[in-house]
Amino acid sequence: MSSPSEPVTVSFAASAPGRVNLIGEHTDYNDGFVLPMAIDRHVTIRVRPRGDRLAVLRTQRDRRPVTIDLAETIHPVGRSWSNYVRGVIEGYRRIGFAIPGFDAEISATLPAGAGLSSSAAIEVAMATVVETLCGRSLPRAEKALLCQQAEHEFAGVPCGIMDQFAVCFGKAGHALQLDCRSREAVAVPIDAAVRVLVFDSGVKHSLADGEYAKRRAECASAARFLGVVSLRDVTAADLEAAAGRLPATELARARHVVGEIARVPKFVGALADRDWESAGRLMGESHRSLSVDYAVSCGELDRIVELAAEVPGILGCRMTGGGFGGSTVALVEADGAEETGRVLHDAYRNATGIDAAWFLTAAGAGPSVVVG
Prior knowledge:
By secondary structure, this protein is of the alpha+beta class. The protein has helices spanning 83-94, 118-134, 140-155, 162-168, 211-226, 236-242, 248-273, 276-292, 299-308, 337-352; strands at residues 12-23, 33-49, 54-59, 66-69, 102-108, 174-179, 185-189, 194-200, 314-320, 327-333, 358-361, 368-371.
């Protein structure tokens, strides 16, 4: 743990950002590479200490209070949103944090169900609340892993480490190249010549409905067929040689993962060289692989990517997040970026009738606390 500080006994607000993944999708639970960045949309928890051992939570949308007894073992409750915070609080209780009572008001500029990691944002924001109340904190990697475990155990989503690490390690102006096996994280500058455009398809997704777990199981099955610990250990040549003995589904899933892991360092190199054509091509390859081989896209996401290819100023576009709806991410020329976003919005509305939300974002910083 980091050095202890004084517990905060006055009102404060803890915020944590969402994230968008530039490339490297569904590779984190296969020990691969990812390239997420924190964005300038947040979950914020405003806290007022109480004199008892209760946590009383409210959200902007649902004013009915959720009350948690901090003196007792905490368990998940159905499919409630509160399971994300319950899991985090229980995780800290298990490692000896004596959490005092508090009232909490939860708000967000980050849309839920849009593939921008609202779940990791609320987990990390609550972890930051607990650490601030207790005056002690975990190293960032341990904090991220505790939040990941909360999502596994309390929300029933067997997510990889990317989302929580991206939120905890966010650095302004930089993406994060994360090796999900070694957990080595390297900050990658985002050139001022480009902006990141996040475009919500208008289709809500849910990773707790079984499809995410199914993809993870299919990857594990492919790894067993290939005799490796994870698909990180498979090359394109290995996969080609074994294609005849792999079931069709496992072959397709492995083909995406192996190709996607290889695309991440290539994309980082393209950013460093300001080779926007190569960066855009790699994003397109990533989306096609996710749509065809991994089967996690949907018609609306595919349509956005198709339309983006025709919009001047968009260098590359792909779905981002777990899939089955949610958002796309595009790399766009900084000059005229607002107009670029409007053109894509109008083209998508004309094609689908959906008045989609979109925004431009810079790479943001990780969690923060404001006292008072």
